[in-house]
From TrEMBL:
PANTHER family named in the record: BLL4482 PROTEIN, BLL4482 PROTEIN-RELATED
Coiled coil: none
SUPFAM superfamilies given in the database record: Cytochrome c (SSF46626)
KW S-adenosyl-L-methionine (keyword) present: no
PROSITE patterns: CYTC
Protein name in the entry: C-type cytochrome
Signal peptide (UniProt feature, chain positions): 1-19
Domain Cytochrome c residue range list: 22-125, 167-276, 305-395
Disordered, as annotated region: 400-429
Length: 429
């Protein structure tokens, strides 16, 4: 009887009780650095239980359950099977994985690091739920086609240190290229949707968002940023007079980068400042070099100033936080950012500004929450276009002031955001 009770107790005990605490602790750090939770945890769902919808040009791909569950997760996966999935894009049953799982970056990871992540995941609560089925249209539903994709776009192999470089540089390279897989978003894609390594980190199209150029080019990239500014941005998502993070970058900072030690962030900044600078002729000056305060709000006094004008829309929806002159309010972590000298308003591509107006900003940070409300449910597509064009023209890069209602509608649909309520003419306040 005692033996049976002991066996039951041991079988119910968490897996970490039988493992190496130091290995699991390292696995936790590595899982944070690799941002595993971003794609493998559904909004509001249990950690690593899968179901996060990843939008791609070919349809929605759902992040898999990587919890310790033996039926739906990785609870009965061998070490070799887990390593093959992470580094080679091959599932437990030999199926080819879609590159929404960034194995073209994770292939550079050390095997021991991959197994440390596995040990950490197995130490977490099992989530007994199936992953929603990924159902892409033909021919993208033919997973065997990924073999052909790999022939052109996948070079397997662990990243080896460069003995001619410093330990910090090599560590930063490993973080940027492998663990944090920065190139997955920030490197443009080829016609076959592989990473264009000749233009590494020159910026990528994420559908509803643009991942900006993060090479050291002084106009198109981060060449004018100081080392400490880069570290502060990776840690907090905000650097006054430079940029504030939204969209996928805000998620990366929220779930991953803010938890890394400053030594890691310095190493990443050191490496990024050393890569080949890549220019962009469309960016005539640095994204954060645009903008002058405006006093357009004065023309609205004593009249409506044109109810649907950009100035009126800005005054009604934006000025209370960003200031009537666009210069922001407050200072420090919880300041409302200035729209002048800001990466999104000064970009040649207006996509991120439109996305922020539609979807807002939310970053759950260790220092507190950063929140900007979403206006998708309040503003029509033509109003969002008018407002974004006004913001670009008055506070940022006038050349980017070309959003259309059709573009806004596409971005709204791609992000699965609601339509505003229908109102009759004259009903708007």
């Amino acid at each position: 009887m005692k033996k049976t009770l002991l066996a039951l107790f041991l079988s119910a005990a968490p897996l970490w009780a039988h493992g190496d605490d130091a290995l699991i602790k390292r696995g936790e750090y590595l899982a944070r650095a690799a941002d595993c939770t971003a794609c493998h945890t559904a909004p509001g769902g249990p950690a690593f239980g899968g179901g996060y919808p990843v939008s791609t040009p070919f349809g929605v791909i759902y992040g898999s359950n990587i919890s310790a569950d033996k039926q739906f997760g990785i609870g009965n996966w061998s070490d070799d099977e887990f390593v093959a999935a992470v580094r080679d894009g091959v599932g437990k049953n030999g199926q080819q994985l879609y590159p929404a799982m960034p194995y073209d970056a994770f292939t550079k990871m050390k095997r021991d690091d991959v197994l440390a992540i596995k040990a950490y995941l197995l130490a977490q609560p099992a989530v007994h739920q199936a992953t929603p089925r990924t159902d892409l249209a033909f021919p993208f539903n033919q997973r065997w086609g990924m073999r052909l994709w790999k022939l052109f776009n996948f070079s397997a192999g662990e990243l080896r240190p460069d003995p001619a470089k410093s330990d910090e540089w090599n560590h930063g390279r490993y973080l940027v290229e492998a663990l944090a897989h920065c190139g997955t978003c920030h490197t443009p894609r080829t016609l076959t949707m592989g990473m264009d390594e000749d233009n590494a980190f020159a910026g990528g199209d994420l559908g509803g968002w643009t991942a900006y150029n993060i090479t050291p080019d002084k106009r198109a990239g981060i060449g004018s940023w100081s080392q400490q500014e880069l570290v502060d941005y990776l840690k907090t998502g905000n650097v006054a007079g430079r940029a504030s993070a939204a969209g996928p970058m805000a998620e990366a900072i929220e779930h991953s980068l803010q938890y890394l030690p400053d030594s890691d962030l310095h190493a990443m900044a050191t490496y990024l400042r050393s890569v080949k600078p890549i220019a962009d002729d469309a960016q005539r000056k640095a994204r954060d070099a645009w903008g002058q305060p405006t006093q357009d709000y004065l023309t609205l006094r004593g009249g409506n100033g044109g109810e649907a004008s950009g100035a009126a829309l800005f005054n009604r929806h934006c000025a209370s936080c960003h200031g009537a002159d666009g210069a922001g309010k407050g200072s420090g972590f919880h300041a409302y950012p200035s729209l002048l000298h800001h990466g999104s308003t000064g970009a040649a591509d207006n996509k991120n500004l439109v996305a922020v107006i539609l979807g807002g900003v939310q970053r759950h940070m260790q220092l507190g929450e950063i929140l900007m409300p979403a206006f998708a449910g309040e503003l029509r597509d033509d109003e969002v276009a008018t407002l974004s064009n006004y913001v670009n023209r008055q506070f940022g890069n006038p050349a980017a002031a070309n959003a259309s209602a059709e573009q806004v509608a596409r971005q709204r649909q791609d992000a699965n955001l609601p339509q505003p309520p229908t109102v009759l003419q004259g009903d708007r306040p």
